[in-house]
Amino acid sequence: MSARRYTVVVIALLLYVPVIQAVSSGKWLSLSPSWQWDGIDGMWSTFEVEIGDPGQKVRLLPGTSAYTGNVVSVVTPPGCSRYPAAANCTGSRGNVFSSNASSTWSTRGLPDGGESELDDPVESALGSTGSVSYGFDTLRFPCPDVPLVANLLVAEYATEDFWLGSLGLSPVTSNYSGAHVSAPSLLSVLRHRGGIGGLSWAYTAGAYYRQVFGSLTLGGYDASRLDAMKSITVPFASDPSRDLVLGVQSMTYDTPGSTPLGGGFYAFIDSMVSQMWLPASVCERFEQAFNLTWNSTCELYLVTDEAHANLIELNPTVTFTVGGADALADGQTIDIDIPYAAFDLNISAPLVEKSSRYFPLKRANSSSDYTLGRVFLQAAYLFADYDRSEFRVSQALYPESYDRKTLVAVDSPHKAHLGKAEIAGCVVLLVVFAGSCAVFGTTILLRKKRSRVQRQLASSLAEKDAIVDEKADAIHSLSLCSAASTPSVAELSGIETQIHEAQTQDRDRPELSETKRASIRHELPVEVVAVELDGHSCSI
Q: Which residues does UniProt assign to the signal peptide (predicted)?
């Protein structure tokens, strides 16, 4: 191989290595919604994935809570057989998952066969509990370019407190005390394998009243779903279990003669719950403003037909003025406007005996329970960036076409972390690169050495040529003298050895002929065949 070709190879490798190092950058994963509305305490936009082998399709809610970060939660068949009063139970729960039907389900390493209790202090404090069975299984996204994710921690349950399963989004690795297992999160696995460029996600719940489905992006966000003029970035809270905390400066509504609904508290954003859990004093102001009735048996704010008709006519918009930790001290804030239609929900069995209208508001027992659930995320767009320990809240937008996305990748600011396959590839490339450099250097040295030897040889030949010329001239002179003094001899003597030299003035010296005239090459004749490539062929 010539030095020129080695140079091309080395340059190609130098250009290729940065591509390998940046393999995880500039990547996002946008999940399409299931195009269905599920649930029994409102109509919620879900996202479909496949669990197990063969794959079982389930529709899940994005789980923004830190304690759902490293687990995919699914509903088991008993989750419907226990509730015969639930209409279309399987459909409303986003389908059920049977671990017995999956060949890749495993409880290896889990004590008690993975049987445990839900150990989520945030949701448990809000009354959501139940038994759960943990195991490991595969997950597939409905995206052709995304490979399956194996050995993810999956929690299966039948409780009515979590009617829909969830897809954990937080990369925080949590230890489940019941199962004594620590597993990587879905987001971390995708980042490690190069599926996304950073540890971030963005989500808005969608709005049934506008017939706009939810949006979920991993490794970035969809700029078409947020109002950049009404957006604020907030650092994560110090408590990792309640990282997405907003300061609620005030709440107001826009009907004539309205009074403030309250404010001056911090609330955790959590998609795992449907309602808003607010201070009792704030709930009382909502009761008065919207003519709500608290049902102590159901522990819900039920809405009568008369109150509903009045609210439809007034169509109030509730404005949440929110910000970061300094929001309560007149710091930077934005307004999130939520129309009454977002609060106009229905709830059905088994949570209540018969389907009823209700207002998604709950009375919190303590300040640590203040929560803004999915009802808030109908009108808010949430982007969480775990690489930078901050999140952004914006007013959600509702594009006319779901296909009109403006996806923005948000890469990790740290050095890209390469997976095993990428590391192996880099090692191979470096070895090839080092070998190519060695061969290239050796080739250059050999070329220089060969040139030096050729110069020395040429010089030596020139000297020998000069000596031969001198000897030839001397012999020629002697031959001329002999011819003049003695008769010529026609035959060689059989006794004495005679040396006969050709005359040098008129003939070339045979031993120098190759250096005196151009070389003549003789090659075998080759038949030239013209070949045409097919129009669809690729010439390499």
A: 1-22
